[in-house]
Amino acid sequence: MFEYMTAQEAAELWGISVRRVQRLCKENRIEGVLNVNRVWLIPKGTEKPLDKRRKSERGGIRE
């Protein structure tokens, strides 16, 4: 049987906000999540997804 953590637990573990974890779940960016009675359950041991919002270049300045 799988063990799960809540969005709150994942947020603390990954160092991001609970709302960001919920959004990642809703966007299917985390594999194996369940939504039970409006509570997101994330399999324990799941790694934080890459942040696609960040760009490889900082500040948009090219040299």
UniProtKB/TrEMBL annotation:
- This one is known as DNA-binding protein
One of the entry's Gene Ontology molecular-function terms is: DNA binding
Domain of life the protein comes from: Bacteria
Keyword DNA-binding recorded: yes
Q: Give the record's keywords alphabetically.
A: DNA-binding
Species name for this entry? Parablautia muri
Alphabetized InterPro entries for the sequence: HTH_17
Residues in Helix-turn-helix domain copies: 4-44
Q: Name one Pfam family in it.
A: HTH_17
What are the top taxonomic ranks of the organism? Bacteria, Bacillati, Bacillota, Clostridia, Lachnospirales
